[in-house]
Every structure is written in C-alpha cells, then in structure tokens.
Design brief:
alpha/beta; Immunoglobulin-like; 2 domains; 4-stranded mixed beta sheet; binds copper (II) ion
C-alpha cells in the first residue's frame, strides 16, 4: 500500500510537468504564428472579413483608425465611425479612390470596395492618422 502511494506521488509531478510543457509549447506556437505572419506578410495574419453587401466597421478614436489595417472581400462596405469630438476624414493616399470627406463626432461614412487592391489612406486634417484597406 505504501509502495503504491509512493509510485503515485512520483507519477503526479511528472504529469504536471508534462501538462505545463504542453500548454507552454501551445502558447509559444500561437505567439510565433502571430509574429511570423505579421513580419513576412501583414495580410496573412488578418482574417478576411465581410463579403458583398456586408459592412465592416472601422472606428476612429483617439486620433487613430481601429483597426488600422482591415482585409475585406470584394463588395464589402467599410463604415468609418468617428468617436472623437474632432472632425476626421478617411481619404485614400492615391487618386480619387475614396474620400469620406469630414466626418463629425458620432457620424458614420460608408465606402464600398469593389476592386481588389491595397488602399492606404489617412485623415486629411491629421496626416499622421493612417490606415490600410486590403480588398481581396
Ligand atoms: Cu483627423
């Protein structure tokens, strides 16, 4: 009887160590997967959201776009909602791709993306505010 207890006492710590190692390596894999994805191909780590007729929201708050990079399917509408009291815009860097014009506090402007591509944009009033819409 006492020998059985001794064996159990030995086995349990081994099991605990095995579980800790298993959980630890899962965390490492998740962390490595996230950082590798964003380092090589930024879009790969981002889930493609939306579809034709669907709406994906980008919040503007604290002088930043959230999320700053959005990957959407063709035909998705992106709703830019300004949570700041200051006016902002979402204006494409290149050409007349898209421009919401000034968005007041609490207002939303919709932009529908029909062509695939990577569209960098900024706020006209605060050019340090930048974002990217990737359309697949
Ligand atoms: Cu702004």
């Amino acid at each position: 009887m006492s020998k059985l207890l001794t064996n159990r006492a030995r086995i349990i710590p081994v099991l605990v160590v095995a579980v800790v190692i298993a959980v630890g390596s899962t965390l490492v894999i998740v962390l490595a997967g996230g950082s590798t994805g964003s380092a090589s191909t930024p879009a790969a780590a981002t889930t493609v959201a939306g579809s034709t007729g669907k709406v994906v929201t980008v919040d503007i708050s604290m002088f930043a776009f959230h999320p700053s990079t959005v990957t959407v399917a063709r035909g998705t509408t992106v709703a830019f909602t300004n949570m700041d009291t200051t006016e902002h815009t979402a204006t494409a860097d290149i050409g007349p791709t898209f421009d919401t014009g000034p968005i007041q506090h609490g207002q939303t402007r919709m932009v529908t993306f029909t062509k695939p591509g990577t569209f960098a944009y900024k706020c006209d009033f605060h050019p340090f505010m930048t974002g990217t819409i990737i359309v697949r």
